[in-house]
Amino acid sequence: MLMTNLQGQSMSISTDILDKKFKWSSPSNIALIKYWGKKENQIPQNPSLSITLSKSYTTTSLELTSKNENWINFKFEGMKKDDFIPKIEKFISRLGSEWSFLHDYSLNIESTNTFPHSSGMASSASAMSALALCFLEIKKSYHDQDFFIKASEMSRLGSGSACRSLYKGMSLWGDDGEEGSDLYGVEFSQFNSFYEGFQDTVLIISSDKKSVSSSLGHSLLDNNIYAHSRYQHARENLGKLKSILKTDDFHSFAEVVEQEAMAIHATMMTSNPSYVLMKPHTLNVIEKVKSVRAKGLQLCFTLDAGPNVHLLYPRRAKEDVIGFIKENLLQFCEEEKYIEDEMGSGPVRLSEL
Ligand code: DP6
Predict the structure, then answer these.
(1) What does the pLDDT look like over 273-294, one tens digit per residue?
(2) 251 lies in which domain range?
(3) What is the CATH number of the domain that holds 185?
(4) Is the distance from the beta carbon of residue 174 to the nearest atom of ligand 1 less than 6 Å?
(5) CB of 214 closer than 6 A to ligand 1?
């Protein structure tokens, strides 16, 4: 089949893609410096930096068949789930004319998550990066040097944070005047061995659907009078954190990371209309974490756009932290639920070709 790409060059798509199953698993990630606020075309207002997770991931398979009445068939955990289809359609339309050949087929997509659907964990990063990897493999060998960069660029168009899920360890996304780009995430490896195997234990404070979605949250920043100082603050925090990560100074790490979490929630409270995603138990946990750190435990927190608390700590503190959680924090969790995760090694290819 001959088609034309954005630059007007023709390129061929092999017809034997019909018999192939593309399959990838891709992890979630937790941001230390937050992406909160974006421009047109999924361009972030400030650079962000995240830890790639290991145990929370999405596995997605994609098969193209001759076109039948449904363009996209989507199953989640083995069940048809039509409400995700508009998100996939939007993603494909953002990929541009280079990918419009996908309309000539029916796309059969199946996905599973390792983390429970009701856990309150955000899944767009793992879901969109796994899907982007499947799409990209239609056209490009995963051996190609720029495969993951290209997959990251595509993932960004599915969900901004997804472009940081493609690499082991840590990822940086956004123009920071150094190695970062607004278009895709890159691997960030300049961290002290202190952070190897870093832990993220997620306390599930509430698994209720959020009152304000991430996309609405991002757009409410456009008219927030504090938005520009927030973007500047994030840039400064990234500079500080990059220096801190070269050391094992946990106290300074905790200071910057907690400030980032509180700063994005501050923008929520100062938006018009204002909203609060933290719950009373989110604050109860935060207080306990701060006071136990003052007593010497290497433990700090971060938050995504929701009430659940990500507890971050070095692997060597694990036994003490889990003991502390069980004794002091489980009372604040919904049905005592929590998820133990840690730094991971990025996506895994499962395609059978
Ligand atoms: C608070 O990546 O979910 O988790 O690009 O609209 O899909 P979209 O937003 P999304 O936003 C994530 C926001 C965050 C911070 C972060 O992960 O950096």
Answers:
(1) 999 999 999 999 999 999 999 9
(2) 194-342
(3) 3.30.230.10
(4) no
(5) yes
